[in-house]
Automatic annotation (TrEMBL):
It comes from the Bacteria. Transmembrane segments: none annotated. This is carbonic anhydrase. The keyword Zinc applies. Zn(2+) binds at residues 52, 54, 105, 108.
Length: 204
C-alpha cells in the first residue's frame, strides 16, 4: 500500500505540522512503539525533504512528523550531487512519494561561504570548494537581480535547486508532468520556526 495523498494534500499536511511547531503545540505523531513495529517491513512516506544539513533544520521536528512520514536527504546548502539525485529518484520511483520539498533556511553558512568567495575571490580548501562552486551560481543570480543580503540569496538558491532537480532528473520531471509529483522550494526562518513556500513545479 502506498500513500494516498496528492501533492497538494501532502503539502497541506506539512504546513499544518509546521503551524503546530510554530505555535509550540506539536503533536509528536507516529513516535510510539506500535508505529515503530508497523514500519519494520515497509515504509510509505508522504513527502521527501531535501534540506540543508544545518543542525537547526531537523525536518521531522519543524514539520511535526514521526517515523515513516518523511524520506529525508540532507547536504550542506542543499547541494545536489549524483547520490542526492539517486536518493530522490528512489523516493519517487520505489516509494511513490508525491511531494519533494527543497528546504533552505536563513543565515545559511554554506550560502554565506559562497557569498564570501564571490566577494573576496578566495576559494576555500578541500571539498568545501566543491560545495561553494555549486552554490555560487545562485549567489551571482541573486546579485544580478539586485539582492545583496544572504537571506535573499538563500531564497534564490532554493528556487534554483528546485528547478535543477526537475531539469536534471527525467524520473522526477516525468512524474511532475504526469501530475503524480510536485517539487517545491521552501525557506525556513530560524527565529520564528516558519516554513514558507518560495517556488513550485507541478500542481499544488
Amino acid at each position: 500500500m502506498t500513500t494516498d495523498l496528492t501533492p497538494a494534500l501532502a503539502w497541506q499536511k506539512l504546513r499544518e505540522g509546521n503551524e503546530r511547531f510554530v505555535a509550540g503545540s506539536s503533536n509528536h505523531p507516529n513516535q510510539d512503539a506500535s508505529r515503530r513495529s508497523s514500519l519494520v517491513n515497509q515504509q510509505h512516506p508522504f513527502a521527501v525533504i531535501f534540506g540543508c544539513s544545518d543542525s537547526r533544520l531537523a525536518a521531522e521536528i519543524i514539520f511535526d512528523l514521526g517515523l515513516g512520514d518523511a524520506f529525508v536527504v540532507r547536504t550542506a546548502g542543499q547541494v545536489i550531487d549524483d547520490a542526492v539525485l539517486g536518493s530522490l529518484e528512489y523516493s519517487v520511483s520505489l516509494l511513490d512519494v508525491p511531494l519533494i520539498v527543497v528546504l533552505g533556511h536563513d543565515s545559511c553558512g554554506a550560502v554565506t561561504a559562497a557569498k564570501q568567495t564571490v566577494d573576496t575571490g578566495e576559494m576555500p580548501k578541500g571539498f568545501l570548494r566543491d560545495l561553494v562552486e555549486r552554490i555560487t551560481p545562485s549567489v551571482l543570480a541573486a546579485r544580478r537581480n539586485g539582492f545583496e543580503d544572504v537571506n535573499d540569496m538563500v531564497v534564490e538558491h532554493v528556487q534554483q535547486v528546485a528547478e535543477r532537480l526537475v531539469d536534471s532528473s527525467r524520473v522526477i520531471s516525468e512524474s511532475v508532468d504526469k501530475g503524480e509529483v510536485a517539487v517545491i522550494g521552501v525557506t525556513y526562518r530560524l527565529a520564528e520556526g516558519r516554513a514558507e513556500l518560495v517556488s513550485g513545479f507541478g500542481a499544488l
